[in-house]
Design goal:
Elements (H helix, E strand, L loop, with lengths): L1 E5 L4 H12 L3 E6 L17 E4 L5 H8 L4 E4 L6 H4 L3 H22 L2 E7 L22 H18 L4 E6 L1 E3 L10 H10 L5 E3 L5 E2 L1 E3 H13 L4 E6 L5 E2 H12 L6 E3 L14 H7 L7 H8 L6
Parallel strand pairs: 1-2, 1-4, 2-3, 4-5, 5-6, 6-11, 7-10, 8-13
Antiparallel strand pairs: 9-12
Helix pairs in contact: 1-7, 4-5, 6-8, 8-10
The structure holds nicotinamide-adenine-dinucleotide.
Nicotinamide-adenine-dinucleotide binds next to helix 1, helix 4, strand 5 and strand 7.
Length: about 300
């Protein structure tokens, strides 16, 4: 297939691009390199077509993707804390930029797999979270993704095939440090023999899903006959931040304890996916186990 990945030099986008190239698909990568890095595609640089391009540049985007069969829309501003201070930028990229992709899909007739987020649910009182739970984001970032989901609804009614995947917490090597998730931050500290830093009491729970599993969910969504859906992409397993800190410390062999700082604004208490719909619609199952991945990725320190 002829495929495009927006945000393809970013964390998820680069794994996804490599996943597609390895399966013989031709891939156009679109990214303005805001947080993405072209080095993330070093393994496959000669096998892809790369365009340094902002998704807000509609006409240029149109030219680049006019012959694709499908597009994976990963490009976004993705940092919850930053979204409180840069609301207009977040709205422009995550809402208007996404609408550009949907508009082009309508005009040119390709399928869209849209990277949504568990943040659209906000601070739910019940876990695991099902797709039909109320969407009530508590950060501007989550709010922009909810607005993008409304656009997915609108454009699907206009005939666009669009599957929105609501990613939970994704982990893997290569997240950019400034925007890194909690696992990357803990690992960065551990590699310097420093304690992981927990915001709040550490009893908040998350659902950590491995980035290659997310790439495979995207691919299955593109291939599936399903033309419109919102689907959770997580593991269904709750891990508290305290448990995560213990796992990271134990994998390193260091004798240290985590440090606690103040809770973060907009930090959700419990976020765990019900993944029955992904199993049913996409025949998808996460394969990588967090504790095994940490154990093989973190070098054991000799004290
Ligand atoms: N990583 C996670 O845990 C997670 C969880 C839920 C949802 N998501 C969503 O998955 C997608 C990928 O996230 P990620 O973790 O890889 O983030 P990332 O920051 O590594 O990737 C985003 C990419 O989009 C690019 N980009 C930003 N603005 C752009 C613009 N205007 N035009 C073109 N490119 C632009 C960036 O340069 C970057 O390469 C995002 O849509 C994000 O909201 C990620």
């Amino acid at each position: 297939m002829n495929l495009a990945v927006t945000g393809g030099t970013g964390f998820v986008g680069s794994y996804l691009t490599e996943y597609l190239v390895k399966r013989g698909h031709s891939v156009i990568v679109i990214d303005n390199l805001h947080t993405g890095r072209i080095e993330n595609l070093n393994n496959i640089r000669t096998e892809i077509e790369f365009h340094k391009l902002d998704i807000l540049e509609y006409e240029k985007l149109r030219k680049v993707i006019k012959n694709v069969d499908g597009i994976f829309h990963e490009a976004a501003l993705t940092e919850v804390q930053e979204s409180f201070t840069k609301q207009k930028e977040y709205y422009d990229v995550n809402v208007k930029g996404t609408e550009n992709v949907f508009k082009l899909a309508k005009e040119l007739g390709f399928k869209v797999i849209f990277a949504s987020t568990s943040s659209v649910y906000g601070d739910t009182k019940k876990i695991p979270i099902k797709e039909n739970f109320e969407r009530k984001p508590i950060s501007p970032y989550g709010d922009t993704k909810l607005q993008a989901e409304w656009l997915a609804e609108k454009y699907s009614k206009l005939g666009v095939n669009v599957i929105s995947l609501r990613y939970f917490n994704i982990y893997g090597k290569g997240q950019s440090s400034a925007y890194a998730g909690v696992i990357t931050k803990f690992m960065e500290n551990i590699l310097k023999s420093k304690p992981p830093i927990i915001n709040g009491d550490g009893l908040q729970v998350r659902d950590f899903v491995y980035v290659t599993d997310v790439a495979r969910a995207n691919f299955l969504a593109m291939k599936s006959k399903v033309n419109y859906a919102f689907v959770n992409v997580g593991t269904g397993k709750a891990v508290s931040i305290l448990q995560l800190a213990d796992m990271v410390i134990n994998s390193s062999g260091l004798k240290i304890r985590p440090l606690h700082l103040e809770a973060l604004e907009g930090d959700i208490r419990a976020s765990v996916a019900d993944i029955s719909l992904a199993r049913k619609l996409l025949k998808w199952e996460p394969k990588t186990k967090l504790n095994e991945w940490l154990a093989k990725t973190i070098p054991k320190k000799q004290e």
